[in-house]
Amino acid sequence: MARAPIWDVETAERYDTPGSGMFAPEVVGPTVERLAALADGGRALEFAIGTGRVAVPLAERGVPVTGIELSRPMIGRLRTKVDEATIPTIVGDMATALAPGEYALVYLVFNTISNLLTQAEQVECFRNAARHLVPGGRFVIELWVPELRKLPPGQQAVVWHSEPGYVGLDTYDVLNQYAESYHFRFDESGQARLSRSPHRYIWPAELDLMAQLAGFELESRHADWTGGEFTADSRSHVSVYRIPPR
Description:
Elements: H1 3-6, H2 9-15, H3 25-39, E1 44-47, H4 55-60, E2 65-69, H5 72-78, E3 89-91, E4 103-108, H6 119-132, E5 133-144, E6 157-163, E7 166-173, E8 178-186, E9 192-200, H7 204-213, E10 217-222, E11 236-242
Parallel strand pairs: 1-2, 1-4, 2-3, 4-5
Antiparallel strand pairs: 5-11, 6-7, 7-8, 8-9, 10-11
């Protein structure tokens, strides 16, 4: 599955869920607060900006934000919220596309680096972040931890979330470090809508090595945007990498 067709017009139209899910204030608020602090008065660049879930409130906080996004339909949704002058956005792949100028912060949220389906592309994403950053600049990645410990022998799928009207599960190909996420949403009649997305999952240690190859140092890692401790039981992490100051 190629990346661009997944984020098509239909997906873009139903992507935003104002006030709930990933758009809930308790999710967006801490994310924006932490990113604003890490930008430290400088400019920010979001890889895979999508419909502006994070970029729009971050810009409203006074942080100048530019975006890179592969999907034109997602950019179309972004443009219903802010114009090009407010949040300039370059159409392109986050591993290779260039945005004009230099930035204090590059960030990549909600597991999106895993949408790059090869290790080489993921390394290039780090290198692309480094190209955009001033000395001392930071690259922030939010990423889930693969739940392979939940897989008994012979089983390939893990249900990671279940609630009325929704079931989410991941299937794993452990030989190729590949996962596919399936999202089942049920309406009041019991009819189900399925959406899915492919991922190359990355362990934190591998992510750190990718960072080193691009010239970064790990500055911090927490379990969430509020600074919770990252442990062996954490299901996700927020990792902050920094280009050493000159």
